[in-house]
Specification:
This protein is an alpha+beta fold. 33% of the residues lie in helices and 26% in strands. It contains 13 helices and 19 strands.
Length: 409
Amino acid sequence: MILPASWEQVPLIRTARREGAWVLACDENPEAAGREEADAFETIAPRNLSGLLDAARRHKIEAVATDECDYSVYAAAYLAAKLDLPGPTLYAAAAGTNKRLQRERCKDAGLPQPEFAACSSLEEAQAATNRLRPPVVVKPVDNRGSFGVSVVEEPGQLREAFLDAVTHSHSREVLIERYIEGTVLTVEGFGFGRTHQSMTLSSKIMLPGRHKVAVQLIYPAEISDRDRQRVLDLHTKVAEACGFLTGPTHGEYILDKKGGLFLIEIANRGCGALISPLVVPILSGLDVCSAILRQALGRAPKPPEPPEGGRAAVLDFFGFPPGTITRFEGLDEVRKAPGILDARIMARAGDPIPPSVNALTRHGFILAEGRDRSEALDRARTALKSLRGIYADGSSVTPRDAASLAEAR
C-alpha cells in the first residue's frame, strides 16, 4: 500500500511495480495521478485511519510505504502497528506531525531552536507575543508546508494571524515563536534503523513579507564547509531526538548573521516537489524510493557512498502575473530541455491566478541539475523561456523566475 497517490508519489509507485510489487494506492482525490500507475486504487483520505485499515485488510497488504506527505507518515505508522508490519513508530510519527511535540523533544535534548509557546486562545497568544516581542512567527501545530504560517511584525497583526493559524490547525493549537532572520537551509537525510545519516543540504530563498513562501532551493548550499558540517550534524541530532530512525527526513534550519544555527522544523519524510526521488539520488547516491520500499518489506537498505565528482541541482518556482490564463503552452518542451529533471504547472487554466501565500498556491516549478550551481540555474532559467500562458484575447506571457518573484514581492 502506498500513501497518498499524488504526482509526488508516482516515482514511489513506479519503483514498487518495477521491483515486482502489486500496489494498492490510496488518496482522497479520486483523480490522483497515481491512480493509473497502481494495480488498484481506493479513494481514502490519509487521515481516515479506519478506512485505510479496512482497505489494507481487504487487499491483504504486506507492506505500507509513503513519502513527501506528513499526514501519510502517521497513517503508515498506524497501519504498521495494527498489522504488525515494518514501518515508522508511532512515537516518531507523532513528532513528525505535531510541531509542539517536536519542539518539546528538541528542547529536552538541548538542541538550538527559537523560543516558543503553544497557545489555544487569542489571550494566550497575546501574552506569548508580548513576552517574545515582535516579530514573531505564528503557525499551526499540526499542518504541512506553509499553511497558516505568517510573521507578525506588530501587535495589531496578531489577531488575524492567530485565527488564520487556528483555521489550519487540526488540534486548534497554535505556536508562537521568536522570529530569527538569516539564511534558510534544508537538509535531506535517511534513518537506516539504528543510525541516521544527513546527506544533502540546500540554500532556500523565501518570498519576503508576512507569508514566507519558498521560491528556490539550491543544492549544494552556498555556505562555508564548516557551517555545512554544523548543519548536517545538527540535523542528525534533531532526527534522533525525534525518533526518526526509519525512512527519509527533511529538516529546515536558520543560520543567522552571528553564526547561530537554529532548527525551524523537521519531518519524517522527503522534501516535496520530487526532491526526494529525483535530486537526493543524484547528490547522495541513495535511491530513496528503493530504500523506502526495502524498509517497508523488512529489509535493511545500505547507507550510500557519495558519488564521485560534484553535482548540483535547483528547484526554481515560477509565477504568472495576475489574470485568468486560458491555457499553458511549452511544458513538454521545457521537460525535454538539457538537465531538466521535471517541470510542473500547478495553476489551473481558466481560474484566476492566485497570489503565492502557501505551497498549494505556487504557480509551478522547474527542477534542474548540472555540474555546478551556475549550470543548474542557467538550465532552469533557459528552459523557463519556453513556457507561456495564453489569455483569452490570444496574448501570451512568460512566467517570472524565483529571483524576479522575490524582487516583485
